[in-house]
Amino acid sequence: MNVDGLNVGTLVWLMTVLDVALTLPSTVRIAGLFEPKYQGQKMAFQQAVDRINKRYDILPHTTLVPEVREVDEDDSFHASKEFCHLMKGGIAAIFGPMSSISAAHVQSVCEVMEIPHVETRWDFREQSEFRSINLYPHYSALSKAYIDIIKQLGWTSCTILYEGNDGLIRLQELLRAPSESQLSITVRKIDTAFTRPDSKPDYRPILKEIKKRAESRIVIDCDYTKVQDILKQAQQINMMTQYYHYLLTTLDLDLVDLNDFRYGGTNITAFRLVDPSRPQVQAVLPAWKRRNLIPSMQSIQTETALMYDAVHLFAKALHSLSAASDVRTKSLSCSKAQPWAHGNSLLNYMKITDIDGLSGSVVYDNNGQRSNFQLDVTELGTGGLEKIGRWDPKKGVNITKDYNKVKQQVKHSLKNKTLIVTTVLEPPYAMAKEDPDGILQGNDRFEGYCIDLLENIANHLKFNYTIIPVADGQYGAQNKDGEWSGVVRELIDRKADLAVASLTITYLREQFIDFTKPYMNLGISILYKKPMKKNPELFSFLAPLSVEIWLYMIAAYLGVSFMLFILARFSPYEWYNPHPCNPESDVVENQFTLLNSLWFTIGSLMQQGSDIVPNATSTRVLSAVWYFFTLIIISSYTANLAAFLTVEKMNSPIENADDLSKQTAIPYGTSMGGSTENFFKTSKIQTYERMWNFMESATPSVFTATVPEGIERVKKEKYAFLVESTTNEYTTQRNCELMQVGGLLDSKGYGIGTPRDSPYRDLISNAILKLAEEQKLQILYNRWWKEKGGGGKCDTEDNKKTNANELGPKNVGGVFVVLAGGLGLAIIAALFEFIWKSRKYAKEEKAWGYKQKSLCSEITSELRLAVKCNGGSSRPSRKRRKEIEAEEMNNIETNGLTMMPLTGNYAPAGYPLPPSSKDQYS
Ligand code: ASP
Predict the structure, then answer these.
(1) N or C: less crowded end of the chain, CB within 10 Å?
(2) pLDDT at position 296
(3) What is the β-pairing status of strands 575-576 and 587-590?
(4) How far apart, in whole angstroms, are the C-alpha atoms of residue 715 and residue 719?
(5) Mean pLDDT over residues 589-598, rounded?
(6) Which residues contact 462 (CB under 8 A, 6 or more apart)?
(7) According to the model, what pLDDT value does residue 194 have?
(8) Which GO terms describe its cellular component (predicted)?
(9) Residue 47 — pLDDT band, cuts 50, 70, 90?
(10) What is the DSSP string of 771-784?
């Protein structure tokens, strides 16, 4: 909407300007106390005043008059004196000084006089308690930023190097962290007592101590002016490599010349408050640089920027206050307690005003603290310090760097770089080539699985390498003092970039070094001499069947023979007339006497047969089942006997680790300084604990300096060696007198070791995965295990033979069941035969004029006859027996006596024989 050519906005602005013009004097004095060290702040103060005086939107009719005074650092007396002097002329605010002692004095005067005190220094006191305002970010929020970045970086341990006690307050959140997280922190004060010949502090002793502890993550809290010197000294002791990560708490790392460290690959991270790319900064920076107002190459010191912002905040607040009240400065005297009436209001206005300054947005919370601010996360790259993310008190760290780009950068940096590779000389992983003339040089001197693996990886990632076998020949174990040995030590000391050996990935090692993905899987096993061959035994023919089976067979043989005998006696069809021409013969005969039954059964068991032929269905059923039984048993025996005769039984005193642990006759041990030793040392499993106790106390020592030494010991002595299965397999394939005893005690893998935080680890892991996918790892394995150096020479027929086991009830038990079933069937058949025949006899006897007996008494009498021990092969025919019976009955009646039937052994009940015929028929 237009009102006579002016819009409403312009009108409001004009009214505000007019209003301000009415309530403010034409000049307002503001004081600044500056120490020589902070010339930048003094310049920023003056520049900011100049800038505001030129602006039309803030204090358009008022000129700020800067009253600048220089005071010495920590000279509180001089500072207070200057301040009192300035107050006499009337001032609206005092800026500075920076040193804490002087600032405290000035602040106490401000308390009384109610003059706003504007500060731009780090201070851990709560501002709400004083009549001052501080533009420096609040210490607790800053402290949170440090813990946030450490969490983001995933550090599990770090060392804090601090210069002054303020540093500990700055890092208080971090120092509290270990109680909540897994972070382990070591705190060291930067000791400036040691000096170098150029009389500068010597930081190397403390740095060396950190290096010795294998710490690679270091937080440095010091003034930015000391950073370069510390990093330079770190570089001198080789602590500025890709394996180290420094987090600097200074917000002014932009002001440090880091050119010397740009290509070392060292990780340097820091926060900054003043982003040089911000438009506000860009608006002033070139002009200040041109006029040589700032010493910096790139950016503005934080405190300088804060001073510039402070003046702007003050001006804006004064502008707002003047719209509400008539603000006039007043001459005050330090000797009288007469406060300035507008001081409190002006301070309050400053706390509710916000500006977008060089240090970002300046906003105050309810407590009058600048706790809501944003920081840039910066990292040193090859192009200098780069912004990689942002920190915000609410959202924490937000890293925006492109990790793919980082990966590509690392890959690029690896190209044509020469890495130092440590290894352990142990067949077939890494071995010295035979070189009688000594012509081989460098890496050509070595061969083996790991050497080939390394070559493949190097070809893939295009780096060069120098192989240096580890001096002590060990893989790496920690001694009582926590010192590591072997290749692990080399990596901890960063003497090597890679450890390519049969290095087992373990939890403990992982705390000190990094591992790539595993390239081979294995477990601990026992290496021992092959047992002596057993001398063939005299009765080895018994071996194919177990003792149980032999006993059951004897029982079955006796049982079947006896049953055959009984059934044959019981069954009427087994009694035949020995005189076929005389059908009226008085005698019948049975071929199945007890001896004949035993003979018939053994004959069939031996696959020979006999003249005895069963006639009755019952005896035939039993015979058939017995034939079946013998067929199965004999076939099984024959088959198993063949296996037993071809297999040579080994006499092995130990079958597994448990056997080993329960004896002391065969000493056993491991190689020293490796994961196998550590496995037993730390095991909580009873068997392995027992083994460790034995190993530890054994004399002479059962430990060997190296793995090959252990293998030699197995060959020469009575000694079992606990070694990894891969080595075990390699050894047993070349030394046919050795073998692996039992299975694996655990399961783990070999990986390539790198120093902690190595940028190359992921690239090498990827290369390993690729080689595995392309089956190159398998090809390498076949080459070194199976093809080279006589692999597979022990795979002769002898070694391939498997063990033969005796047959037990589980194998042939079924045939016994069939036999038992057959027995039952034969008994039933015999009963049927008997009943059938009894009915026939009953009719005949009736025809002969004899009284018929009941079926039950017939069965009973026949059974008695059958089981009678004196079972001969003949007996009277049925007709004759009836006659004898009748004669006996007559005799009894004639003598007037009633005879009881004879039930003794020699006379079947119901058929008492006359004494004269007893011998003949029994
Ligand atoms: N490969 C093992 C290791 O890394 C050696 C051992 O058997 O102890 O320690």
Answers:
(1) N
(2) 58
(3) antiparallel
(4) 8
(5) 89
(6) 414, 415, 416
(7) 67
(8) postsynaptic membrane; presynaptic membrane
(9) very high
(10) HHHTTHHHHHHIII
The model's pTM is: 0.68
The pair of three-digit structure tokens given for residue 469, joined into one six-digit string: 């076998």
Q: Domains, the chain, ranges and CATH?
A: 2-136+300-365 (3.40.50.2300), 139-272+373-401 (3.40.50.2300), 436-522+751-787 (3.40.190.10), 559-644+815-876 (no CATH), 652-746 (3.40.190.10)
Residue 791 burial (CB count, 10 A):
18
- How far apart, in whole angstroms, are the C-alpha atoms of residue 634 and residue 646? 19
Mean pLDDT, range 811-821, rounded to an integer:
86
Q: pLDDT tens across 225-263, in order?
A: 999 999 999 999 999 998 899 999 999 999 999 999 998
- Which residues, at least 6 apart from 9, have a Cβ–Cβ distance to it below 8 Å? none
Count of residues in the chain: 922
> Which of residues 181 and 237 earns the better pLDDT score?
237
What is the distance between the alpha carbons of residues 682 and 800, in angstroms, rounded to a whole number?
37
Cβ contact 499:475 at 8 Å: no
The answer to the question of whether 504 is labelled as a binding residue is yes
In eight-state DSSP terms, residue 348 is H
β-bridge mates for residue 69, sequence order: 33
Between CA 776 and CA 783 the distance in angstroms is: 10
675 in ligand 1 pocket by Cβ < 6 Å? yes
| 505 CB-contact burial (10 Å; exposed 0-12 / middle 13-18 / buried 19+) | middle
What are 91-121's pLDDT values in tens digits?
999 998 999 899 999 999 998 899 999 999 9
Strand pairing report for 464-469 and 2-3: unpaired
Strands 418-423 and 464-469: parallel
> Is a pLDDT exceeding 50 seen at residue 899?
no
pLDDT digits (tens, 9 = 90+) for 450-494: 999 999 999 999 999 999 999 999 999 999 988 999 999 999 988
Does 671 sit in the ligand 1 pocket, CB within 6 Å?
yes
Ligand 1 atom with least separation from CA of 502: 1
List the beta strands (DSSP E) in 652-797: 668-669, 720-724, 738-741, 748-750, 753-755
Distances (CA, A) of 773 to 345, 519, 770: 74, 11, 5
At 736, list the tokens: 């046919």
User: Which of 510, 516, 707 has the most ligand 1 atoms within 8 A of CB, as the residue to mutate?
Assistant: 707
**Pocket flag, ligand 1, residue 674 (CB < 6 Å):** yes
**Composition of the chain by helix, strand, coil, percent to 5:** 45, 15, 35
Tell me how far the alpha carbon of residue 639 lies from the centroid of ligand 1, in angstroms.
46
Q: Is the CB of 450 under 6 A from ligand 1?
A: no
Q: Write the single-letter amino acid at 276.
A: P
Residue burial 844-865, b: 16+ Cβ < 10 Å; e: rest: ebeeeebeeeeeeebeebbbeb
Give the residue whose CA is nearest to atom 7 of ligand 1: 676
Q: Which atom of ligand 1 is nearest to the CA of 722?
A: 7
Q: Are strands 748-750 and 520-522 parallel, antiparallel or unpaired?
A: antiparallel
Could you please report the per-residue DSSP string of 128-178? GGTTEEE-SPPHHHHHHHHHHHHHHHT-SEEEEEESSHHHHHHTHHHHHGG
Exposure pattern of 706-738 as b/e (b: 16+ CB <10 Å)? bbbebbebbeeeebbbbbbbbbbbbbbbbbeeb
182: amino acid identity, one letter: Q
Pairing state between β 184-189 and 157-162: parallel
The rounded distance, in Å, linking the Cα atoms of 208 and 200 is 17
Instruction: Judge whether 125 is annotated as a binding position.
Output: no
What H or E segment, with its residue span, contains residue 420? strand 418-423
Main-chain phi, psi angles of 376, to 5 degrees: -90, 140
Q: Are 590 and 574 in contact (CB under 8 A)?
A: yes
Ligand 1 center–CA 524 separation, angstroms: 9
CB 618 within 8 A of CB 567: yes
